[in-house]
Amino acid sequence: MKLLYWFSLILFTAHSTNSQQSVDQLINPELPSLLEMYRFLHANPEISYQEERTSAFIAKELRSLGFEVTERVGKYAEPHRISYGVVGIMKNGNGPTVLVRTDLDALPLEERTGLQYASKLRTKNDEGEEVSVMHACGHDIHMTSFIGTARILTKLKNRWHGTLIMIGQPSEERGAGARAMLNDNLYTRFGRPDYVLALHDNASLEAGKIGLCEGYALASVTSVNITVYGVGGHGAYPQTTKDPIVLASQIVLALQTIVSRENSPLDPAVVTVGAIHGGTKHNIIPDEVQMKLTVRAYKEEVRKHILSSINRICDGIAQAANVPADRMPVVKVDETEFTPSTYNNPELTHRLTATFESVLGKENVVKLDPVMGGEDFGIFSIDNTIPLCIFWLGAVDPLKIEKSKKDGTPLPSLHSSQFAPMSEPTIRTGIKTMTSAVLELMKSRDERILRDSFGE
Ligand SMILES: [Zn+2]
Ligand SMILES: [Zn+2]
């Protein structure tokens, strides 16, 4: 028995090293055309809700690899919008169904990277204003890694079994695309996955490295609009008015006590008032003030508590000021752009950590803290009933990180007009990790039997 164990261990180790070599060997010849694709996607970005050409590009690439492709998948809450979701299916015998997602959209931002292939494009936003467009969140890196992964997996069909679903998701930056695709019966039309995977580039992690975060990884994002009504009048006679600017100021400060006084310090949460607008002139007390808030939390009960507290505080402050009953503040939660928190299934995250360590070396796989940023990717887990994992892909030149640590030079963050990922090692690592993640989850039966034989 012992002998058999060691024999299979040697066989397995040799096999997995060879496998990795073959993934590397398969990536090398693809890289020049993929880097060219990256530069093209980078120079041709489209903002959320407008990903028509980008989605057609991804659909064409998947189709050329033999995927069964459906375009324009998705239904937004606003019926006039077209959803540019792409679904590519590759069936390869019996086995699990794995979904790999890339996002497609860019941001309304003027690029200031100075790169040769920098975007110079301009477009019209929802309000009809002309805006610049830039892939400042690295979704072009995601798409290139995604196509690279699809190319390698189609060449390695003898190494995996099951159904691979590769989707291009629109409008991530508006928190609307994932929900739109599910609203269009994504899982009933194309199959419910057993695992859901994505990667996101990271603006403070070295290219060549991968970061994982187990459990809650990104926060839920809730946009809240508040209108504080008053009774306007002359600035010199405040006694004849109900001043909404004073009320709004009290509300802003009171809102800060929700997280600090009502919420457990062990449950992360943020309430930020990001916009406040009211009034026109020095000596006029206006009739109303508008406020825009973002609320972040991991746990749903924390989010619900914060939202009910916002209502209670607004009402309480208006009542204390004796605002007429028909002029009470109105609090509206913008449900169309709400995204739940992203929870990385711990078991799946452990499994992928081990896979990435064997592929990249332990030193290149780091554990990262959760962030209060948001993503709509978590929606694909259907309330965490499907194991999901999104991992961070290092995108920064290691020399720049070293310099930043030494002299404090700030690194451009995601959504910065100067964010310029180090394309080659980042895309290579993106393909290597996503390919190995899919192979791990869909590996051939003989490999599974081999692993089972030594108790994994
Ligand atoms: Zn973003
Ligand atoms: Zn992003």
Which residues sit in consecutive blocks of at least 5 with pLDDT less than 50?
A: 1-15
Number of domains: 2
Oligomer state equals single chain
Relative strand content: 15-25%
Task: Just give the CATH class of the largest domain.
Answer: Alpha Beta
Helix-and-strand structural type: alpha+beta
DSSP summary: helix tally: 11
Largest sheet: 8 strands, mixed
- What topology, given as strand order, has the largest sheet? 1-2-6-3-7-18-8-17
Shape: elongated
Number of strands: 18
Classify the fold: give the CATH topology of the largest domain: Aminopeptidase
Which small-molecule species are bound to the chains here? Answer: zinc ion
Essential attributes:
18 strands; 456 residues; elongated; single chain; 8-stranded mixed β-sheet; Alpha-Beta Plaits; Aminopeptidase; alpha+beta; 2 domains; 4-stranded antiparallel β-sheet
